[in-house]
Amino acid sequence: MILELDCGNSFIKWRVIHAADATIVGGGIVDSDQALLAAVGGLAAARLAGARMVSVRSEEETDALCEAIRQAFAVDVQVARPVIEMAGVRNGYEDHERLGMDRWLAALGAFHLAKGACLVMDFGTAAKADFVAADGQHLGGYICPGMPLMRSQLRTHTRRIRYDDASAERALSSLEPGRSTVEAVERGCVLMLQGFAHTQIDQARALWGNEFSVFLTGGDAPLVQVSAPGARVVPDLVFVGLAMACPLS
Ligand SMILES: Nc1ncnc2c1ncn2[C@@H]1O[C@H](COP(=O)(O)OP(=O)(O)OP(=O)(O)O)[C@@H](O)[C@H]1O
Ligand SMILES: CC(C)(CO)[C@@H](O)C(=O)NCCC(=O)O
Ligand SMILES: [K+]
């Protein structure tokens, strides 16, 4: 079995797959290295043959987590590294090492699935969009605050915006103009994300007409689905790219 890890800015997404056919044994989302070791240990510890990881954390944090996994489960961790070109996709950054690995792997995964021009949008801690042309050229993309960052900026920098997570969730039952603080903020931030998605799709249309695929991923992808009709929601898109970048057998 193979352990796959996507270390984001706020959460670690993990799953364990069978090496032979990539069927999923189990997985989850945790918010600390300790919670990850406990969760994986409960599932598959003794039977791991390998591990692969993508991380947007610092080199030190990434190394520490790899070492902890090595100690706990006696497996080497293959970490995805920046490259200029892979699987027919060419990195569009001036300095290819600066492109976030989560964005790069999502782009690889999307181009592999689309076999043509694609727009990839990832709604996590940050919201990201990346453009890959039909010939595999990555054109670059956009980064802006995602739902958690927009919300926390408002909470942090105002005196009178205060509410709890449960009321935040209730507030999103509709997107009508908010009639309480929590509704006004939560719905306002969702509309920002939807506006971001619309603008990216307009841009893709200007570049490619109707000849492109749209992919949505990240924890908050469901919030923008209505703004991207026809988009493929692929929650494990980064893992698709990770398997391409770090083949283990
Ligand atoms: N089961 C879940 N666990 C954690 N977050 C979730 C879940 N479902 C939806 N979310 C939402 O997803 C968002 C986090 O998305 P994601 O896990 O993709 O972030 P991340 O990988 O830490 O961020 P980034 O990819 O920008 O580094 C949060 O706003 C959170 O509320
Ligand atoms: C933008 C984030 C933080 C999103 O996770 C990540 O992709 C990252 O750290 N990127 C490096 C900066 C860049 O992609 O230009
Ligand atoms: K990330």
TrEMBL record:
Task: Quote any Pfam family the record assigns.
Answer: Pan_kinase
Enzyme's top EC category: transferase
EC id = 2.7.1.33
Q: Where does ATP bind?
A: 6-13, 125
Q: Which SUPFAM superfamilies would you find in this protein's record? A: Actin-like ATPase domain (SSF53067)
Q: How is the cofactor bound?
A: A monovalent cation. Ammonium or potassium.
Q: Where in the cell is it found?
A: Cytoplasm
> Cofactor(s) for this protein?
NH4(+); K(+)
Do the record's keywords include Magnesium? no
Residues that coordinate or bind substrate: 93, 100-103, 181
Please give the Gene Ontology molecular function terms for this protein: pantothenate kinase activity
Instruction: State the pathway, as annotated in the record.
Output: Cofactor biosynthesis; coenzyme A biosynthesis; CoA from (R)-pantothenate: step 1/5
- Gene3D superfamilies, sorted: 3.30.420.40
* Catalysed transformations (reactions): (R)-pantothenate + ATP = (R)-4'-phosphopantothenate + ADP + H(+)
Please classify the protein's predominant subcellular localization into one broad category. Answer: cytoplasm
**InterPro entries, per this entry?**
ATPase_NBD (IPR043129), Type_III_PanK (IPR004619)
Q: Where does K(+) bind?
A: 122
Say yes or no: keyword Transferase present.
Answer: yes
> Which keywords describe this protein according to UniProt?
ATP-binding, Coenzyme A biosynthesis, Cytoplasm, Kinase, Metal-binding, Nucleotide-binding, Potassium, Transferase
Active-site residue numbers? 102 (proton acceptor)
What family, per the record?
Belongs to the type III pantothenate kinase family.
> What role does this protein play?
Catalyzes the phosphorylation of pantothenate (Pan), the first step in CoA biosynthesis.
Give the quaternary structure: Homodimer.
Q: What is this protein called?
A: Type III pantothenate kinase
